[in-house]
Amino acid sequence: MSAEHDPSHEAPKLIADPATPKVGNDEEALIVGALRLVERGLLITVALMTVGAAAIEIWGVIGSRKIDLADILLMFLYTEVIGMIAVFYTGRGSPFIYPLFIAITALARLIVLQGKEMKPENIMFEAGAILVLAIAVVVIVRGGKS
């Protein structure tokens, strides 16, 4: 038997499952449209919840007449969530960067909140996590330009 007709050298043939439903262009457009509508609704819900949480936090700061670094970092978290929603709506920028910024800010806030009670090695671990996330942001930004 020659190598040209040797079945061991052939790529495996994929057999479609006859039970798998075929989706036409109209159905696909309907499904994609419905999913986009759900996505938009959830994004609006997240935006409203974020604005509400920020308003509650601002009200608490006004009531206490005291602003801490943790309060400012929390405001940055809310701002970054709103920025991430804006990126999803406008399509400008990378939607992957904002969750990384949110994680960096959340870790920084955690370090500030736990402060003196935190073990030094835990601070180093969290600082290392912030460094890894910052490197990931640089890689994504530089990778997107090339």
UniProtKB/TrEMBL annotation:
Quick one: where's region Disordered? 1-20
- Topology relative to the membrane, per the entry? Multi-pass membrane protein
Name of the featured protein: Protein PsiE
GO cellular component annotations, sorted alphabetically? plasma membrane
Q: What is the lineage of its organism?
A: Bacteria, Pseudomonadati, Pseudomonadota, Betaproteobacteria, Burkholderiales
| Organism listed in the record | Rubrivivax gelatinosus (Rhodocyclus gelatinosus)
In terms of one coarse class, where is the protein primarily found? membrane
What segments bear the compositional bias annotation Basic and acidic residues?
A: 1-12
Query: Which family does the record claim for this protein?
Result: Belongs to the PsiE family.
Which InterPro entries does this chain map to? P_starv_induced_PsiE, P_starv_induced_PsiE-like
Q: Which residues cross the membrane?
A: 42-62, 69-90, 96-112, 124-144
Pfam entry (one): PsiE
Whether NADP counts among this entry's keywords is no
Note the superkingdom of the native organism.
Answer: Bacteria
| GO terms for biological process, alphabetical | cellular response to phosphate starvation
Keywords, in A-Z order? Cell membrane, Membrane, Transmembrane, Transmembrane helix
List the subcellular locations.
Answer: Cell inner membrane
